[in-house]
Amino acid sequence: MELRIFLGEFFGLVVFVVIHGGILASMMLTGKIKEGIAALAVFLGVSFGLFAALAGGSGAHINPAVTIALLVYGSVGVNLSNALIYIAGQMVGGFVGGFILWVIYRPQFKTSTTPFAPIAGNPNPKDLFQNVITSILGSFFLALLFIIAGKATLPNTSIFPVAAGVAVLAVTLAFSGTSYSMLNIARDLGPRLTATILGLGKPTWIQVLLLAVASIVGAVLAGLVVTFLSHFINLSEF
């Protein structure tokens, strides 16, 4: 059971990073795709990542915020032990996905003046307070909508990745106007570690780790809200 969770989350993050980052790399490194495709990258990355995670045998969280929210809520099948396995799979999957992305676009990465851009972003130090706030709120809404999407589509599992993808897309678009929001710790930190090891650009870490903590706070709040809602709505099956 624990291995299935790890592998499911691992493959989910690999697919997410490769598809999302690949579309961004094509846009930023080759200039062949317009900026609006970035939103589609999020939707496709999340949706196919979830399909891969489901096929791998996990509960298809592919985001530490979702795992933490479900842990706080006390969801069936999510305890502290396997929550750590979920997150480990997500982080390792993010790292390997970032490496595969580098292999695919290696010539473009070598010649680009902004090779780190498709991997992740660097927050502006001047926007630190705002970034903390939006990371808390962004993570909160993402985890909340993700869980609700899962509950709404539970009778038909095949629809869940699409519904969850739309939920994540909605949150991404809603928070894209701010400087930097940590919406998925594994999607950011995993590939960021890859970029650091490969020497792609100048990825920052200190502020990003602070935003990761803010994202966890948002996830905990989402779990508490779902717990509260469960007193009025039947969420026990999820």
* N-to-C span: 18 Å
H/E topology pattern: HHHHHHHHH
According to DSSP, the number of beta strands is 0
Question: Quick one: biggest sheet?
Answer: none
Give keywords.
about 70% helix, about 0% strand, 9 helices, globular, about 240 residues, mainly alpha, Glycerol uptake facilitator protein
Structure summarized in a few sentences:
By secondary structure, the protein is mainly alpha-helical.
In terms of topology, how is this protein built?
Elements: H1 2-29, H2 37-56, H3 64-73, H4 80-104, H5 106-111, H6 128-152, H7 160-175, H8 185-198, H9 206-229
Helix pairs in contact: 1-2, 1-4, 2-7, 3-4, 3-6, 3-9, 4-8, 6-7, 6-9
How would you describe the overall organization of this protein?
The chain is an all-alpha fold and 238 residues long. It has a single domain (2-229), classed as Glycerol uptake facilitator protein, CATH 1.20.1080. 71% of the residues lie in helices and 0% in strands. The chain has 9 helices and no strands. The protein starts with a helix and ends in a 9-residue tail after the last helix. 52% of the residues are buried.
